[in-house]
Amino acid sequence: MPEHIGRPDYDAIRASLYYASIHLKLAFGLRTTFGFPATRPSLSYLEVFSWGQHVAEHDELVLTREQEEQAFATLGHCATYISVVQVHTALESVHDDPFQIAEADVASAFHISRLIRNAFAHNPFIPVWEVRDAWKNRRFVVPDVITLDTSDLDGKPLRREDYGGPIAILRLIEFAERVVQSRAEEAA
Fold first, then answer.
1. 106, 162, 157, 100: which is closest to 128 by C-alpha?
2. Residue 184 in this model has a pLDDT that exceeds 80
3. N or C: where does the chain have the smaller number of CB atoms within 10 Å of the terminal CB?
């Protein structure tokens, strides 16, 4: 680590990855429980919600069934984004120069999370790949976890199929947790 940054807080980094994983899992669970209109229970909404000087009444808070379905899908979408941001941040935090990581699988995990994060960053609900020249036409692989082939992605909408879908993101979090644990043990 550069001296001005100091030693990484491995516990905080692991906690952030944990929170990303449970957020992603909750999005899966909520979508399964509530995402199928014919069989799902009704949601309950507050009659009134206040925070400081602001108050919102029930009619301002309640969603239609169609809006609820959209919101559950969006929750999974946002959980993916939060997860890749945390993976990127975690891997960046435990390396002096994350663009010079010696282990190919760890370097790939860093670049995959960075590229997905960048796609979401400028328009989270309509992410578009932004693949700079140095990263074009490359294949990043974390064996048995996630793969990203950047050929012909630049400027195209991000699709789950591009990186292997939501379970690949969950596996990427788990991989990052192992990397952080390993770095913590090396530092001890």
1. 157
2. yes
3. C
Q: Count of alpha carbons within 13 Å of 124, Cβ hemisphere only?
A: 12
pLDDT in tens, 83-107: 999 999 999 999 999 999 999 999 9
- Mean pLDDT for the chain? 91
Cα→Cα distances 58→35, 51, 69, 179, Å: 22, 14, 19, 46
- On whether residue 4 sits in a domain, the answer given is no
Asked whether residue 2 is domain-assigned, the answer is: no
Indicate whether 5 belongs to any domain.
no
How many domains is the chain partitioned into structurally? 1
Tokens representing 169? 């993101």
What is the pTM (predicted TM-score) of this model? 0.89
Domain extent for 109: 10-187
Helix crossing, 65-93 with 166-187: angle to 10°? 30
Amino acid at 40: R
Question: Helices 10-34 & 65-93, crossing angle to 10 degrees?
Answer: 160
DSSP 169: H
Contact 84, 117 (CB under 8 A): yes
- Residues with Cβ within 8 Å of 60's Cβ and at least 6 positions away in sequence, in order, are none
Residue 113 pLDDT greater than 90, yes or no: yes
